[in-house]
Amino acid sequence: xxxxxxxxxxxxxxxxxxxxxxxxxxxxxxxxxNFSGTIFKYISLAxxxxxxxxxxxxxxxxLAVNNNTLRIRIFKFSFFLYFLIYITMMCGLLFxxxxxxxxxxxxxxxxxxxxxxxxxxxxFYFLAFVGDYINKSIVxxxxxxxxxxxxxxxxxxSIFFPSKIIGLKRKIFMFLFFIIVIEVxxxxxxxxxxxxxDIILNSIGFMTGYFLFRTQSIQKMIRFVxxxxxxxxxxxxxxx
Length: 240
Hints:
With 240 residues, the protein is mainly alpha-helical. The chain has 2 domains: 1-96; 98-240, no CATH class. Helix content is 73%, strand content 2%. The protein has 10 helices and 2 strands. It has a two-stranded parallel ribbon with strand order 1-2. Helix 2 (37-63) runs antiparallel to helix 3 (68-95), helix 6 (136-148) packs across helix 9 and helix 8 (168-188) packs antiparallel against helix 9. The longest helix has 31 residues, at 2-32.
């Protein structure tokens, strides 16, 4: 029995090691190579393998451990690894592309690459999607992608920080500050645009995740998959 537990732990750490190797390759691919459809497919495949390998390692360690406190630590460690790839992918997507310089001054650049009118960009993409005069994958990538990107964020916050410390109002304030800083950095570093509609879409994604991960069915699924049902009550890792 003890030998089996040792084998499970060794194999689990082996899968953790493979996951970290994949993470390093992803960092290289995201920041050292030019984006293309083929490269993005490989990056997506690598991210899926990373998720699966961490899940396998997490499950093997849980099978070898009976202490509930230790199981929660394993659960948080696995989600820390998920958080690493989440941040890596986010940074790669947000700061990878550059803006072609065709402006006479910085002021012209800032004006041309900023949108402070709510729903201007969203309405443009909607009309373009309906009128079918722009690639629909671009529309979906910009609208749906900006929403989905921030859906998992609150789950990570709830797992790593006690609910009594960070309430909903503080989370919203911190998120808005965080996303505005990102938009400003994109503009200043010429890796993107400052668009108030991005802030709106990102906020929708964040709030969707906030309410989604507080449903009992989702919390039960998380406990079943990542802690094998031997978990504390949901309020121990998510707000009520």
